[in-house]
Amino acid sequence: MIMIPFRAGALLARLTVAIAAIAVLPCAGTAASRAASNSTAITSAASGGAGTLTTTPAPVGAIPQVAPWDPDDFGDFHKNALATKTPYGPRGGLHDLTPPPAGAIPVFTQLLARHGARAATSDDDFAVVLQVLDAAKAAGTLTEKGATLARRTAALQKVNDAVGLGQLSTRGRSEQKQLAERLAQRLPGLFADAARQGRTITVINSGKDRAIDSSEIFALSLGQSVPWAAKLIKAPVSDPTTLYFFKQPENAAYQAYKKRDPDLLAAEKAVRLALKTAAAARELLTPLVGVQIVAALDAGMVTVKPNAEDGPATPNSVDVALAVYGVFQQAPALNADGSGPITLTPFLSPDEADQFARVSDTDDFYEKGPGFAGRTITFAMAKPLVDDFVAAMDRIAAGDLHEAARLRFAHAETVIPFAALLKLPHSATQQPLGVMFDDHNGWTGRDVASFSANIQWDAFRTTDGRLLVRMLYDEKEIAFKQGCFPVKDDSPYYAWNELKRCYGF
């Protein structure tokens, strides 16, 4: 049993609320369960095969076709209300693409994609919300709205745990399936040529379950979309050094920065202490648990135990409101699982969601994005990944066409530094020390690293032998950084030699 001491000033005497300990279910979707449930046949070189991925219709065909996320379907909430937990929706379509110069043909593509929408990686937010609501119930201050939130939170936690902590949801699997289908539609000539020439399609992941699953689903879907090229798709391999760099020993300085850098800690504290954040927390919680519980939280009089590993905590009202926001963020990723969508939109106003998204974005901006002016600790570690992109393009430029596509699957912690290092739109502006991150910066979690966010470089060979590169971000043409000049004004096509000059590759 978890004991929660609670006091609410003069109104309530000290009382103890007993809450049943939270049972954390084993993660679904582990390597063993994937092997049992997925009929993918992978032939390894060690067993005498060619290391190719053999596709069968069942695994991908069984994934429901979940409609891509459209912020306009999310009521009055703004497009960044879910920050980096925003489900994926392509920003551009096939007919929005600028045709390459006359005679230019596609010769290569490479991709970096975040894994698909997933279940929460821990039960902590669910636990905090449910325990505080139970404390309010015991104190007699829980409202009907709060009771409804408790029921929906408990129901969503069951769905989350059934999917498996940190594992791809049905929506996430569908995102990756459809992402591959649209890639095939954009570059049919490339894959037809690859099949004729016997070129290879390389698939790489970070080694984490959700990235592995994303790579496998994408590869199977691509093979079904262009069956004439399916035999060219290599079995996915893991490369943590390139795609999980933020956890590698060589980046110990970055890991220390996240834990104890004083500027980082001050920035994250400042946004939580901001008057707008405190006001949003009170406005969210008071209709759920009453003013007495809110006051008790801010007096440090409510103790919770979010998980079995960590000790008890005394969250304030902002901490609890952020936990409610965390549950709110999770719901759309799981809305194709369970018996039906569970919505938490009645419990936050659009303005409240925006403010808590600001808190989330502040953390991500300073922990893994452009960060503080004059410092590169948050994104310099992405250089091996950039080097891999450059090396792949250099091979094509030199006439080595053995590889037709190079497809990578990783995490927000991979995509965000990569975009910052390349100074891509929305990721080019650092924040002066002492100036609080806000809307003027232009960086949002949704724009930079939603679920299944992706950055694609397509290479085209012109009739005079030049190599041109086009970049897509979430399937929409975007420019490279300022100072790089396209082949003509407003064109998305850049000469590879120009990009090498501009970036110093």
Highlighted features:
13% strand; 505 residues; Rossmann fold; 8-stranded mixed beta sheet; single chain; alpha/beta; 42% helix
Describe it for me?
By secondary structure, the protein is α/β, with parallel strands linked by helices. It has a single domain (2-503), classed as Rossmann fold (3-Layer(aba) Sandwich), CATH 3.40.50.1240. The protein has 18 helices and 12 strands. It has helices spanning 31-37, 57-61, 124-139, 144-163, 170-186, 188-197, 209-225, 240-243, 252-260, 262-273, 275-289, 291-298, 317-333, 350-368, 383-397, 412-421, 445-449, 496-503, and strands at residues 2-8, 12-19, 41-42, 53-54, 105-114, 200-205, 237-238, 403-410, 454-461, 467-473, 476-478, 493-495. Strands 5, 6, 7, 8, 9, 10, 11 and 12 form an 8-stranded mixed β-sheet that branches. Strands 1-2 form a two-stranded antiparallel ribbon. A two-stranded antiparallel sheet has the order 3-4. Helix 3 packs across helix 13 (317-333) and helix 10 runs antiparallel to helix 14. The longest helix has 20 residues, at 144-163. The radius of gyration is 24 Å and the shape is globular. Residues 1-50 and 54-58 have low confidence and may be disordered.
| CATH structural class | Alpha Beta
Task: Provide the domain count.
Answer: 1
CATH superfamily: Phosphoglycerate mutase-like
Structural class: alpha/beta
Strand portion, in percent? 5-15%
What CATH architecture do you see?
3-Layer(aba) Sandwich
Give a count of the beta strands, DSSP E runs of length 2 or more: 12
Q: Which value, in Å, is the CA radius of gyration?
A: 24 Å
The rough form would be described as globular
